[in-house]
Design brief:
34% of the residues lie in helices and 30% in strands.
Length: 50
């Protein structure tokens, strides 16, 4: 599964994350930050594992 975590200290808003990672397939807020997924399939896999 390909994803990147960034903290809310670095990126205060989802707009800031989207501006920095424009090719992201999906961005979701998690405790302490944001997960940026390369593909929708990666996001679906992560979501099923929660």
């Amino acid at each position: 599964m390909a994803h990147t975590f960034v903290s809310t200290e670095q990126f205060k808003s989802i707009k800031a994350v989207k501006d920095t990672f424009p090719a992201a397939a999906h961005i979701t807020k998690v405790c302490g930050g944001w997960l940026i997924f390369d593909t929708h399939s990666d996001y679906a896999t992560w979501r099923q594992q929660k």
